[in-house]
Specification:
Length: 125
């Protein structure tokens, strides 16, 4: 399981740096099925230039074993709109869900076989 906490306003440089760091962390899962939980309450959206970078990262993840993503953030229609433009909802081998609280997200991941012993990041810091 890979846990991430996204913060601030993103431009293409921030997105590219994140993509590089994310791939470096996720490469250890190569050849395995893995899941991802991401905290987005502190993310302030991004410029349109981030969208192809994030889309490429999603494609990379799907080709490298990602099967589940749980996004955690308070309901926010504009944030949901931008995320939906960049990240697919579901394929035959992948599913993304959005949760307003982390406990529901961790419960869903555990039900799918990705239990975490210490299931909490609490807040980005």
């Amino acid at each position: 399981m890979l846990l991430a906490c996204i913060q601030g306003c993103w431009d293409r440089y921030t997105a590219a740096d994140y993509s590089k760091a994310f791939k470096a962390a996720a490469v250890k899962f190569k050849g395995q099925r893995w899941a991802h939980i991401v905290y987005l309450d502190d993310w302030q959206l991004g410029t349109p230039e981030i969208e192809p970078i994030v889309q490429e990262l999603v494609t990379w993840c799907l080709h490298n074993g990602l099967v589940l993503t749980a996004q955690v953030y308070c309901p926010h229609s504009v944030k949901r709109y931008q995320l939906d433009k960049m990240i697919i909802e579901q394929t035959l081998t992948f599913e993304r869900r959005v949760y307003a609280d982390e406990q529901h997200a961790f419960n869903w991941l555990a039900e799918q076989g990705f239990a975490v012993e210490n299931a909490s990041l609490k807040r980005c810091s």
